[in-house]
Amino acid sequence: MSQLRATRQLVVVRIDRLARSLSHLLEVIERLEAKGAFFRSLQDPIDTASPQGKFTLQVLGAAAEFERALIRERTKAGLASARAKGRVGGNPGLRARDPAALRKVRLARHDGYMERLNESAHDWVPHVRRLRPDMAWEDVLRIINGPLPPDRHWTQSRLLRAVKAYVRDGFLPDEVLGRAGRRETDDRLPAIVAAIKGSDPDITLQAICDRLEAMRERTPRGRTSWQPSSVRMLLERAERLGLLVRQMD
């Protein structure tokens, strides 16, 4: 049995239910320590809150590394023995470059890629559908990444690949890949603010300020800190230019 001690709760679980192997157990303990929790085994001298327990953990780590090295050596020996007997691993159709086998692999990869895209489609598809091709990709990307945590940010090349895949499968119209028209410099900020407002009509002026600061967008006077009055002014200009009505439609 083992205990997971956190600041607010105590969890008791069998150690064979906590991890699949020694290396997996060490990985679980590392994740717990990163979150400020401690691990203590009720039947083994492991307690990451004490120096002795950490020493035991280091010994287990060395044993796990030794175990991985043995597995690697046995795997290499097994492959060498199979090759010596004329057996080659892998898909025979792929080795022979069979068109049907290659097509099957391509379809499987495409299906997996599309499945991953579908999980994040709500982050980017509405913006692309609404803003392209009226807005340049650089600005669309900044609007998409604005509310997302850093670990979920898109790069322009990754976004373009996703959009092309959706266009190819008919989930987005061809027009989104069209070339963006030239926009006057004075119209850029109103267009960005209108795009943010259009994606969430109930968003407050302060929330738009926060979004613009997260995008590292500077104010018309070149400042990094935004005020609701500046956003209101840009929204009014966007409405006069017809940008706000078009985005909200």
SSE blueprint and pairings:
Blueprint: E1 2-5, E2 10-13, H1 15-18, H2 22-34, E3 38-41, H3 51-84, H4 92-95, H5 99-131, H6 137-145, H7 156-168, H8 185-199, H9 205-214, H10 228-241, H11 243-248
Antiparallel strand pairs: 1-2, 1-3
Helix pairs in contact: 5-7, 8-10, 9-10
Describe the structure.
There is one protein chain. By secondary structure, the protein is mainly alpha-helical. It contains 11 helices and 3 strands. The protein has a 3-stranded antiparallel beta sheet with strand order 2-1-3. α9 packs across α10.
Features:
single chain, 249 residues, mainly alpha, three-stranded antiparallel beta sheet, 11 helices, 3 strands, 62% helix, 5% strand, flat, disordered C terminus
Order of strands in the sheet with most strands:
2-1-3
**Structural class by secondary-structure content:** mainly alpha
Overall geometry comes to flat
| Helix-strand topology string | EEHHEHHHHHHHHH
The count of strands amounts to 3
Residue fraction in strands: under 5%
Mean pLDDT score, rounded? 79
Instruction: Point out poorly predicted stretches.
Output: 4-8, 245-249
Major sheet size, sense and barrel closure? 3 strands, antiparallel
Task: Tell me the radius of gyration.
Answer: 28 Å
The amount of helix comes to 55-70%
Please give the count of helices.
11
Give a quick rundown of the structure.
The chain is mainly α. Helices cover 62% and strands 5% of the residues. Strands 2-1-3 form a three-stranded antiparallel beta sheet.
